[in-house]
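Researcher: Please generate the 3D structure of the following complex. Treat every line as part of one assembly.
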Amino acid sequence: MMKLSQVKAGEGGQVLAVGGKPEFQRRITAVGITPGGRFSVVKNDAKYPMLLNVRSTMLAVNRSDCEEIMVEVNANG
Amino acid sequence: MDNTMTIALLGQPNSGKSTFYNALTGARQHVGNWPGKTVEKCTGSFRHDGNTINVVDLPGTYSLAANSDEEIVTRDYIASGEANLVCLLADASQLERSLFMLADYAGIRVPAALILNMMDVATQHGKSVNAKAIESKLGIPVLPFVASDKKNYGSFYDLLSQRDTYQSIISDEALASLYAREFGDSYQNITALLPNEGISVYENSWLFAKLVERDPVAEGIIKDAVDEVSFKKLIALRDAIPNGSSRTGNCKFQWIDSLLEGALNTEPASLSKSGFDHLALSKQGGKWIAAGIILTSLIVSILVGYPLMAVGSMLPMFGAPLSNWMLSVGVHPLLVSLISEALLTGIAFTIMMCGYIFGATLVFGFIEDIGYMARVSYVYDGTMRKLGLHGKAVMPFLVSFGCNIAGSSGSRVLDSWGQRMTAIAMSWVVPCGSTWAVVGLVSTVFFGVPGAAAIIVALFAISLLHLKLTARIYGKRFLSDSDRTGLIMELPPYHKPHWGALIKTSLIRMWDAFKRAIGIVTLISIILCLLSYSGTGEAANSILYRFGSAIEPVTLFFGLRWQTFIAWLASWMGKEGSLGALASIFNGGSVMSAVANMSIASPDSNAIGAALSTTLNKPEALAFIVAFYFNMPCIMALSSAVHETHSLKWPLRIALYYIGVSLLLACVVYHLALLVF
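Model: Done. Output below.
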């Protein structure tokens, strides 16, 4: 288990938990990041938002918000 | 069906909702306000088969949560039952995520139809969607669609003419059982405390989800419908459930997955990043590519708008023959002056502005349409975050380099009123294209070319401080905690532009701007004309001169002589107006005709320059440049901000703030310069 912000580009896996305030949870849920959902990291450059592939969509998510999202990385992500 | 029907359009941003709305209603649109909210209410209508169909374009939101005024307005409208049918738009090229709105809608007993828009983009990206399969599972009409293609509308009109359409309600059964499985006893206990038949249009499953998502508005609805004891029990049960939104969200996506099972085919290659994105999103080159494309777009916007700008700029040429003719038939000189100068100038300025607005809406609309704008937002997110905004706010700033009016309408891409207001307030620091003519002229006359370059660098440096200050003052006021959320944005797949829809949108936007601006511009022109009117044609006999020279002792404290003070005032009319005012004062003509003539060709710059250098000293010239550069944008930009934010109070206050800051900066620069020169 690790923070989403720590996952390297090209890796992927499964979302385990989404923390943060209810407002953040509602917003991030609406774009498809929910526990159990799969994801892969497209880009993870310092000082830039993270780029993710989630449910057939490429998403940019603010870096510090990605620290609220706990994930599990597996090889075939 | 009845003679009058109302349909509402519901969809996430980028679902193609505006394109659909514009295509349905054309010019039959009305923009108003949702009662008590600073959210734009767009209504329109069209006629089909002898029936009138009203269309309500609901604000683009990602879900039906109560995160923002937009979402609350949307939900309240749906629940009001005013619409006979809600048309839910989903982006077929990103179907899974896009259907979240549908999942959030399930459990609301208001008839709905699902429009799978952008089927063409889905196909381009190797996805095929079986609408019939989805329809049979969902129990409401599902229509594959391309909103930007006229040929598609027949099937939509057919849908509207079937009576069954207005009875189609999404069953919440499957979703309810997913909730029951996920939450176990909590689900049973909570729904048991709710009225058996739900509350108004809401099913209990929907109310349950909103309760555990900690939706304050839904909580209020439940509170009003159940007794106090039950409500307390409900809240206690709710509080024992952590991470409600994530868990209901998970159920909603499971529901979507089962809906799409067997109905959606994706070629595996389609998810990979495109080749261009490697460059466009790269750390090394992304910002440069974006800057290059934006700069090119600004230039192309002006080129596209040029024919119209040229027409506008030629209008004042008719002023002289027109006034000669009117004078010859005995019209009073004051009236002649009003018509040939004020009215003509007002129309000319408005047409020129419309040229740029059309160009910018078309070019930046194109960049948005092909999917690139989101990439610009991504690479500049860090920069915008320093101002308390996020990457999506980059657009109003960029467009403002051409014209602050286009900047205000560019703020529409932002999610909330607070963010829009902040972005507009800050984008006024950005100097529009017309600013440079005046700054260039005055600074080279007094300080030569190297001096002028140094001044421009200094102006940019002060602008950065100004931005910081403005962000501090207005960010605090307009951005609530929920507005300060970081960037969460989809990067749509690249696709071909839809020219027809783009041109139509640009024309509608331009026409809106024209209607709004023409009145106010003409009014201001008339006022300026009256103030500068003098029977003898000498500026020294006008009210403007008497006023200007009377308060010169005060304005001189800010480093402004009466001539430059009036030029500063004239820039409210349009930044070019300043140069015209200077020309007129020094050439002894009427101020208004000079403001008008500015739009034909630049007046004799050498003459103005020579006159300036004998009247002003260097500190006064610097004071004028600073006061002018940081002055509020023109009245048209102000009125466009009022229109975009539905607030008169705030744009006015911000304008006063800009006026104050510009004078204050001029004052500081003037007194510092007095020590040097």
